[in-house]
Amino acid sequence: MTPTVPTRKLGTTGPRVSALGLGCMGMSALYGAADRTESLATIHAALDAGVTLLDTGDFYGMGHNELLIGEALRSAPTAVRENALTSVKFGALRDPDGGWSGSDGRPEAVRNFAAYSLQRLGVDHIDVYRLARLDPDVPVEETVGAIADLVEKGHVRHIGLSEVGADTVRRAAATAPISDLQIEYSLMSRGIEAEILPTTRELGIGITAYGVLSRGLISGHFSLDRELSPGDFRSVSPRFQGDNLRHNLDLVERLRKIAEQKGATVAQIAIAWVLGGGAQPGDDIVPLVGARTRERLAESLGALDVTLDAADLAAIEAAVPADSAAGDRYPAAQMAHLDSEH
Ligand SMILES: NC(=O)c1ccc[n+]([C@@H]2O[C@H](COP(=O)([O-])OP(=O)(O)OC[C@H]3O[C@@H](n4cnc5c(N)ncnc54)[C@H](OP(=O)(O)O)[C@@H]3O)[C@@H](O)[C@H]2O)c1
């Protein structure tokens, strides 16, 4: 297949990547069972279509996600594999029962995490490496400095950040070149607009946006009667509970009307809105779509053909105003770990 996905530079110092990235988390964890064969086929279909950015975390399924990506890369044609870029998060501490117990950003931990990731992915370098959640006991300069050492040695190409606030972005950028900040951004989660996005733009740092479909909530495919398995993040996410869910799905129906007028799907409108820079137009935001089937991937890629003009943006803003979502984006205990929310 001839690649059709346009590319964007990730920040002034980062790599050139596909304008849409594939977030592989849901193929291993957090959204209920996934089909392994379909997951591999989805990664291959994405690479064939010209998606070059594959996002993962070493803690997604405790290594499962990296092993899956490694297998997909090994079984892809050489030319396709050589274009693929890996974006890896590390630092989350897990336990055998699936629990989470904080974050480790110490330099010796950074080196340890990276050694295992390189092995599981089967690559000789990671393209963008980032701490998933700031470690409150380790200054960001130390963690970023340790990744910079890995860049120096050729094990990592670029340094990224994840879910940190504007002050931390500045401190990190004063330590070493930062390619991008990975953070939640969608019609439902607009927290970056006030301070974080102006800061990354000032510093020439790109954004890789996750939760662009608010974890499926604003995909147009979610419904009140959808049953979630106990390990599914959405079964504890405030936005997916009772009245919050009812309210949020009403917002989706407003978006659906706009989508129908544009001849697009709700998911495509939501992705296209982020692709265009959201409420502050620009081309520095790369949405990571969490497709885990070829069907969902094809729908997501369709967002690249959706153009939103000023009237469309105004209609979307009126349908889903900032702060109109009911419920926080994470349960309270997890919100407390987000440097970006303080
Ligand atoms: N840095 C961080 O803190 C952080 C946190 C979370 C995620 N991430 C990264 O960001 C990536 C994307 O996040 P996300 O999975 O929450 O994003 P998302 O795209 O908002 O949600 C993905 C969910 O939406 C549903 N969906 C429905 N229609 C879809 C469509 N057309 N295309 C794609 N998905 C559709 C899928 O459900 P079904 O499969 O059930 O249809 C899937 O479970 C993750 O894979 C991960 O790599 C980073």
From TrEMBL:
Keyword Nuclease on entry: no
Domain NADP-dependent oxidoreductase: 20-319
GO molecular function annotation: oxidoreductase activity
GO cellular component, one term: cytoplasm
Keywords recorded for this protein, A-Z: Oxidoreductase
Name of the protein: Aldo/keto reductase
Annotated source species: Streptomyces triticagri
